[in-house]
Design goal:
This protein is an alpha/beta fold. It has 13 helices and eleven strands. 42% of the residues are buried. The protein binds nicotinamide-adenine-dinucleotide.
Length: 301
């Protein structure tokens, strides 16, 4: 088969596909050129940069294209329903990066607790200010509320318990047996908001407004820490910034933003924000696992 890889892929996986006799072309296409390019391939592998929308699918209709693979979790960069209505399958690699994203969320929790991000930035500017960064808090003994208790949420919950946190979770869907297996109970949203010292969001991009908005922030403990490594639109950025300014929210750890690249400088440069540029899944280990999952998907065709 002819396989187009637009946003990069693990080299071992690429070599394996070639060894299996596939022709693999690594090339990024701007949106205007993508639809036409897709006509020449059986499979296209994208990450998040390439957006495969209805007009691209229209252009590719009637060609050999039969599979779009998203190396990663969220498929919001692909018009999945439209592709499938037109006979093109869409697959993702949902498990490969869960641990990496969970570790990114945990890293932001530590950074928020101990001023890691801002203290490091200050030292780079030759500022040695022990006093400013001496009011850290421990994670041990604190309550972590996980909103969206799926793959990534569960990985984070297990690690948080290992460092002595109490963990509670809210999800619209309850997985039978998971509470007993992980020792993490499901609670209602209001209970999670009222009890948590740290709140980490791990739901997909939800329709109908942000999961974390001004009304929900008002129900949280004073000094709560909010972490978002899910999708930027899950947190109302204006409400978060206002709560950081007022001190209601102690700190926030953000990997995802309403606009990407992020444009809300007042938020991402706030002293109590620990920020990363959507790199939650970007580890060597996750990329290898994503590559291996892609090879398996293509093998199974
Ligand atoms: P998952 O499908 O395993 O889990 C998501 C959970 O959220 C599910 O249990 C689902 O029932 C729940 N959910 C859905 N709507 C909800 C709502 N309104 N309120 C509460 N819970 C709700 O997904 P996952 O693999 O754990 O991924 C979670 C999120 O992480 C997704 O948004 C994904 O796009 C994002 N993600 C980010 C990165 C990154 O680089 N930062 C990488 C991978 C995934």
């Amino acid at each position: 088969m002819r396989i187009l890889v637009t946003d990069g892929m693990d080299k071992t996986a690429m070599a394996e596909l070639k060894a299996q006799g596939h022709e693999v072309v690594e090339q990024f296409y701007e949106s205007e050129e993508l639809g036409k390019a897709l006509r020449g391939f059986d499979v296209v592998v994208v990450r998040s940069k390439t957006k495969v929308r209805a007009p691209h699918i229209d252009e590719a209709k009637g060609s050999n294209l039969k599979l779009i693979i998203r190396g990663g979790v969220g498929v919001d960069n692909i018009d999945v329903k439209y592709a499938e209505e037109n006979g093109i399958m869409v697959r993702n690699t949902p498990n490969a990066s869960s641990q990496s994203v969970a570790e990114c969320a945990l890293a932001h929790m530590f950074a928020c607790a101990r001023f890691i991000s801002i203290a490091g930035a200050a030292m780079r500017n030759d500022i040695w200010d022990k006093k400013a960064y001496s009011k850290g808090i421990e994670l041990q003994g604190k309550t972590l509320g996980i909103i969206g208790f799926g793959r990534i949420g569960a990985h984070l919950g297990v690690m948080a318990k290992a460092i002595g946190m109490n963990v509670i979770a809210f999800d619209i869907f309850h997985i039978p047996g998971i509470e007993e297996r992980l020792g993490i109970p499901y609670v209602e949203m209001d209970e999670l908001l009222a009890k948590s010292d740290f709140i980490s969001v791990h739901a997909p991009a939800v329709d109908g407004g942000a999961l974390i908005n001004a009304e929900r922030i008002a129900k949280m403990k004073d000094g709560v820490v909010i972490i978002n490594t899910s999708r930027g639109t899950n947190v109302d950025e204006a409400a978060l910034l206002a709560a950081l300014e007022s001190g209601k929210v102690r700190a926030a750890g953000l990997d995802v933003y309403a606009d990407e690249p992020a444009t809300n400088k007042a938020l991402y440069s706030h002293p109590m924000v620990s920020c990363t540029p959507h790199i939650g899944a970007a580890t060597n280990e996750a990329q290898k696992r994503i590559g291996a999952e892609i090879v398996d998907i293509i093998k199974a065709m």
